[in-house]
Hints:
Blueprint lengths: L2 H11 L3 H10 L18 H10 L5 H8 L4 H17 L2 H13 L7 H5 L3 H11 L2 H12 L4 H10 L1 H4 L5 H10 L5 H17 L2 H9 L7 H7 L5 H10 L2
Helix pairs in contact: 1-4, 3-5, 4-5, 5-6, 9-10, 9-12, 10-13, 12-13, 13-14, 13-15
Amino acid sequence: MNHAQSIRQELTNISDKSRAIHSQRFFKTGAGEYGEGDIFVGVNVPDQRKIAKKHIDISLGELSEILHSEVHEYRLTAIFILVYKFQIANSQERGSIYNYYLQNTKHINNWDIVDSSAQYIVGEYLYEQNKDDNTMIVLTKLAQSDDVWERRIAIMSTFAFIMRGDYKPTFAIADILLQDEHDLIQKAVGWMLREVGKRVSQDKEEAYLKTRYQTMPRTMLRYAIERFEEPRRKEYLLSQV
């Protein structure tokens, strides 16, 4: 039995039907919803992480058998493996993992899968390369994609920069996504703006918001100012046109 077969078997052995039904609802898998058609077998995240760590030696080629699955937990487990592999990889191997990730965004197709990986692979790799032009080329292409998950990858990848005190990529990608109509993008952009205020400087965040909050979606604004003191938060919300 190879790694891919073992992973599928181990996940199947601990699957739970009631959890699967709950997940189907939570991740909006109904017709017309963002997760339409996604299939769950009912395995919690801590158990997926345990299984992922056991199979960190799987090759990228074999990993595709898991990542390309219709089952959500299979894909998420594959992504956990990819992140773990990236963390222990050398520079050349990290480049291969980064390229593999971007070649497989079609299968990184729900918010938890994106949020568990974009910062740790795309963001980390781009930060390490320390090439501003290339960073913005890659992130801008993702942010301008018709695919909602690639757009979310773009903004979530900037978290790696925020963690080092660099807010510029976040602001640049936020500008591209400022009028995005998808709720999951509005929330992600607002979240990253909030993280700039939390981890870098609220003054920097407010300077950004000053010329934009009037026209950004209200959901985005709510997420961005969530940590502000109540009087300041109300001031923004009441003055938004």
